[in-house]
Design brief:
- The structure holds 2 protein chains of 2 kinds.
- Chain A contains 14 helices and no strands.
- By secondary structure, chain A is an all-alpha fold.
- Chain A folds into 2 domains: 1-29, no CATH class; 37-289, MetI-like (MetI-like fold, Orthogonal Bundle), CATH 1.10.3720.
- The longest helix of chain A is centred in the first third of the chain and has 35 residues, at 62-96.
- Chain B is α/β, with parallel strands linked by helices.
- Chain B folds into 2 domains: 59-169 and 342-382, D-Maltodextrin-Binding Protein, domain 2; 173-340 and 403-453, D-Maltodextrin-Binding Protein, domain 2 (3-Layer(aba) Sandwich).
- Chain B has 16 helices and 15 strands.
- In chain B, strands 7, 8, 9, 10, 12 and 14 form a 6-stranded mixed sheet that branches. In chain B, strands 2-1-3-13-6 form a 5-stranded mixed sheet, with helices on both faces. A two-stranded antiparallel sheet of chain B has the order 4-5.
- Classes of the chains: A mainly alpha, B alpha/beta.
- The interface between A and B is large, with 40 and 48 residues.
């Protein structure tokens, strides 16, 4: 078998499909994007080479920087709010045992099995200033209840709540699986030694979950940068560009403003940012392992 | 030896599977060649049939429409004509793909790159048509063919480039405030004669527990038209100021500043519902049709509300409309209306059944089709002469819009947001939300418009 896998022809034939998929589904589109990023292509007709013009415009484009700022804010929200909560809930679920464990695991995962379109419209109704759940709740408490949750003042926070809530289930499930893989003997030993729940969590659960946390956080940051569908359906980046995210902004420029070349330039910068962030995270986690 | 044999077998199997697709293609080609002879015989037979006057060759026409509601309004009219055409031409099958406006425009662009359907909805405005015509996507039509189709003078202009015609207009769009007459009467509210009276009405209506004006601010374009409407009240007309500003990228004309300030003042006076800047078309319209809002700022294409059974009867039968009231110190009158010929149809240059597509287009525009059916179904104003189809049984709303058009002292033409390229349209429709809700100043708004024109 060893000899079989050292046969270069075999290796080549096994690797070829993967390479072909990479070339045609990833590399070629990136190369085309890079090319179109140097043109003024509108998506129709001819493309004219404009050099670095699109990238120069991008530097002073407030909409783009607002979208990057919001993506960063979402990434921070994921790391600081969503993931600590997900780990804690996963740890509590693990301790619940029995039917309650299965029930709550399902409940927390439900948002992830509902279509993004339904989620977006559900929250649109919840946030509606006239008949929305939040304002009606405030009215029941005796407040005026006329808050414009998706207005300029609160929009980004309202959107962040939806995104954090929606992605919570996945994070929690991965942490839950990680916790389930921890050898129960360790907990028994800790219990015999008199460790309480918080000591067990911080000294056993958390350190052993490190690889899972690393993967989850990397995925969370990448998904924050790639955020598109929920925002498109919930606010479409508005009002103004208050809730604009990079992928949605790229889409608007390429397909709404007919600036396909500019949209591709955003795409190229976007890829570079994603790559840099991934490399940075890998390095950061590697250093900690040493 | 065994392992070498296994290795060779694996490679052969992999290579075979990889080329399986190609070989099936080859087989397909052989089959196609074989069937070609049979097909040729069929064509000869069909040609003979055509010579006898009856075309039996099956044709599939793809229609790409921006009217997803096929049971009400314009979508219903379009579908009626399609069904009639198929009934009259048994060999023709028409496949309709209908999306709402924003999704439609996005997919239109995707189709523009490859495989545009045969008959498409278009807008005769620079923001949509300029890039489309530059890319040579639409086929040229012979203007002389339409001499007796009753098009309103000037209505074809937006669909032309260098004097050549590329599409036909469907509507005459008039922007107005739809209002619930019963609600006004029951609460003793007077119809505003001036814009100042309209603003003064806002707190009165709010105090009574209703939304004064339901505004689709989430989409941006209705507010951009509102701004155009305000410019007309201030200056009497907006056409020259807008075309100059878009051409030169200079929005320093005081009419822009005054109109924008007035829009901000209007939003501050709470004339629109809370959260208007993020609520979409459907949400705004529902506020009005459910009786929660007293008025709804929208185009005459929504006059079919008067016949829409989904709307409660006490609302549906009491919908009336008035145009933007004049300003006390403005030049423009209430009869200087914001109106234009926007939506329409065209045929794709790449259509493989172009002849049939043009035949269908011409069928739709026969005066007794789009225009007549539109009128009968209470759909706004046509771009063709509708007077022969007036029966006396029109809805009140239809009569109101007929009066508005007949008594108009001037017509605005293409609204501000559609006068520039699509990049300008994208900017104004986003920035107008920011300026109206106070997160951006008038100066910042106008600077953004200037930048988008350069």
């Amino acid at each position: 078998m060893k000899k079989l896998y050292s046969n270069k022809l075999i290796i080549f034939s096994l690797v070829l499909p993967g390479i072909l998929v990479f070339i045609f589904a990833i590399l070629a589109p990136i190369c085309l994007s890079t090319y179109y990023g140097f043109t003024d292509y509108s998506g129709m007709g001819k493309a004219t080479f404009v050099g670095m013009e699109n990238y120069k415009t991008l530097i002073s484009d407030e909409g783009f920087w607002m979208s990057m700022k919001n993506s960063l804010l979402l990434a921070v929200g994921f790391i600081v709010i969503q993931h600590p909560l997900a780990i804690m809930v996963a740890a509590i679920l693990d301790k619940l045992q029995g039917k309650a464990e299965g029930f709550f695991r399902c409940v927390y995962f439900i948002p992830n099995v509902i279509s993004v379109a339904i989620i977006a419209y559900l929250w649109k109704f919840i946030y509606n200033p006239d008949f929305g759940l939040f304002n009606n709740f405030l009215k029941a408490l005796g407040f005026e209840g006329k808050i414009n949750w998706l207005g300029a003042e609160f929009a980004i926070w309202s959107v962040l709540i939806v995104l954090i809530w929606h992605g919570f289930g996945w994070g929690m499930l991965i942490y839950y699986t990680g916790i389930k893989n921890i050898d129960p003997v360790l907990y028994e030993a800790a219990s015999i030694d008199g460790a309480n729940a918080s000591v067990t969590f911080f000294r056993i659960t958390l350190p052993l979950m490190k690889p899972v946390i690393q993967v989850n956080i990397t995925m969370a940051i990448i998904s924050a940068l790639k955020q598109m569908e929920t925002v498109y359906l919930l606010t479409n980046g508005g009002p103004g560009n208050r809730t604009q995210f990079a992928a949605n902004y790229l889409y608007q420029q390429a397909f709404k403003a007919f600036k396909y070349g500019y949209g591709n330039a955003i795409g190229v910068i976007f890829i570079i940012i994603c790559l840099v962030v991934t490399i940075f995270l890998n390095r950061a986690f590697q250093t900690k392992e040493i | 030896m065994k392992k070498k044999l296994l290795a060779s077998l694996l490679v052969v199997a992999m290579t075979a599977s990889m080329f399986a697709g190609c070989s099936s293609e080859n087989k397909k080609e052989v089959t196609e060649e074989a069937t070609e002879d049979v097909a040729t015989e069929e064509v000869v037979a069909e040609e003979a049939a055509t010579e006898e006057g009856v075309s039996t060759e099956p044709v599939t026409l793809k229609v790409f429409s921006n009217l997803p509601d096929r049971k009400n309004g314009q979508g219903l009219v379009e579908q009626l004509i399609i069904d009639e055409y198929m009934a009259e031409n048994q060999n023709v099958t028409i496949e309709v793909e209908a999306l709402d406006e924003e999704a439609y425009k996005t997919k239109f662009k995707a189709y523009a790159m490859d495989g545009m359907p045969d008959v498409v909805s278009i807008w005769g405005q620079p923001s949509f048509l300029n890039e489309v015509l530059d890319a040579g996507i639409l086929t040229q039509l012979n203007e002389e063919d339409y001499a007796d189709y009753g098009f309103i003078p000037g209505s074809l202009d937006g669909f032309k480039k260098d004097g050549k015609l590329y599409g036909l207009p469907r509507n005459t769009d008039v922007m107005a405030f739809f209002y619930n007459e019963k609600l006004f009467k029951d609460n003793g509210w007077e119809l505003p004669k001036t814009y100042e009276e309209l603003l003064a009405l806002a707190p009165v209506i709010t105090d009574a527990g209703f939304v004064p004006v339901a505004m689709d601010g989430g989409d941006g374009w209705p507010m951009a038209i509102y701004l155009t409407d305000l410019m007309i009240r201030i200056n009497g007309n907006s056409k020259d100021i807008i075309s100059n500003a878009v051409a030169t990228g200079d929005f320093s004309d005081p009419v822009f500043t005054k109109a924008t300030d007035l829009l901000v003042q209007t939003a501050d006076a709470n004339l629109f519902q809370t959260g208007y800047d993020t609520q979409d078309y459907g949400t705004a319209m529902n506020l009005f049709t459910n009786g929660q809002a007293a008025m709804f700022y929208m185009g005459a294409w929504e006059s079919s509300m008067a016949l829409n059974k989904d709307i409660p009867e006490e609302v549906r039968t009491n919908i009336r409309a008035f145009t933007m009231p004049a300003l006390a110190d403005g030049v423009g009158k209430q009869t200087d209306i914001a109106a234009w010929n926007g939506g329409g149809y065209a045929v794709s240059e790449a259509s493989e059944v172009k002849e049939e597509a043009i035949k269908f287009l011409n069928y739709m525009y026969q005066p007794d089709k789009l225009s007549k059916y539109g009128w009968e179904n209470g759909v706004g104003m046509s771009a063709q002469d509708q007077s022969p189809y007036m029966t006396g049984n029109e809805t009140e709303l239809q009569n109101v819009f007929t009066d508005i058009v007949n008594t108009a002292t001037s017509v605005s033409g293409t609204p501000l947001n559609d006068c520039g390229l699509s990049s300008f349209k994208a900017v104004i429709e986003s920035e107008i939300q920011s300026v109206s809700n106070g997160t951006e100043t008038t100066e910042e708004f106008l600077s953004a418009l200037e930048a988008s024109c350069k």
